[in-house]
Amino acid sequence: MNRYLTHTPSFHKIISTFTKSRFLQFDHIATRTFNPNCYHNYLTDTGYKKMDDTFNFPKFNAFATWYKSEKIIPRVFLSSYLAIIYDKNITDSNKINYFLNNPSKLTFQDYKDIQKENQYLAWTLLFDNHINHLALELHNIEQFTEDLQKHNFVLNNPENPIKVSADGGLKQVSIIADKILYPFKDGSQNVPYSFVEFVERTRDGFEENNAKDIFNSTK
């Protein structure tokens, strides 16, 4: 969490711009990983319960599950990259496997090439197991989205920023990720890192179609 707070200035700007009364609570925390078992063991050991829902994202060759607890952050959305051999979007699986084992050899051009094919994979290659975003729950997401725009926050999917579940019980909007300086083999470059999401809900859980668009905050 400290790493997220250090490298996500938008989170601090959100908190300082809007009164705390706008936010009901933390809604969830999300991470991306190559090894979901590590998170599963940690979460269950610290009191989180794995829920039954599984979400699939063929475009990113990823899947996700979620965990619930009575803690300050009640939900964890854990998404995972499957495997290179199942990724139909990747044209050079040998190169990706090499970088999985030798991340320090990754050049900025390599990263950009991978990002074009699968931006989820590109992010996870750099930041495996890091917090991808933190979500805040609120009322009236339509009004809040307008307020975000008035204060010059850059929205994800700006033409249609609010994602609504099929049953209407879950509405989500996110801003574009803050960038961080990453040390590639050929020099440091700014790349998308972490962001803030906002949720209005009348039911628990998540929605596959919403989540796949929220992923684009790190595009």
Compact summary:
By secondary structure, the chain is of the alpha+beta class.
List keywords for this structure.
219 residues, two-stranded antiparallel sheet, alpha+beta, 2,3-Dihydroxybiphenyl 1,2-Dioxygenase, domain 1, single chain, 8-stranded mixed β-sheet
Structural class: alpha+beta
Biggest pleated sheet: 8 strands, mixed
N to C succession of SSEs: HHEHEEEHHHEHEEEEEH
Number of helical segments? 8
Strand content: 25-35%
Whole-number total of structural domains? 1
* DSSP strand count: 10
**Separation of termini?**
22 Å
Arrangement of strands in the largest sheet: 2-3-4-1-5-10-7-6
CATH topology: 2,3-Dihydroxybiphenyl 1,2-Dioxygenase, domain 1
Low-confidence stretches: none
Overall pLDDT confidence: 95
CATH architecture: Roll
| Helix content class | 25-40%
The shape, in one word, is globular
CA radius of gyration is 17 Å
Look at the structure and give the CATH class.
Alpha Beta
Explain the overall architecture.
The chain has 219 residues and is an alpha+beta fold. It has a single domain, classed as 2,3-Dihydroxybiphenyl 1,2-Dioxygenase, domain 1 (Roll). Helices cover 32% and strands 31% of the residues. It contains eight helices and ten strands. The chain has helices at 2-7, 9-17, 36-45, 93-101, 108-117, 119-127, 141-150, 208-214; strands spanning 23-33, 49-57, 62-68, 75-81, 131-138, 163-164, 170-174, 179-184, 187-192, 195-201. The strands form two sheets. It has an eight-stranded mixed β-sheet. β3 (62-68) and β4 (75-81) form a beta hairpin. It is globular and about 50 Å long. The mean pLDDT is 95.
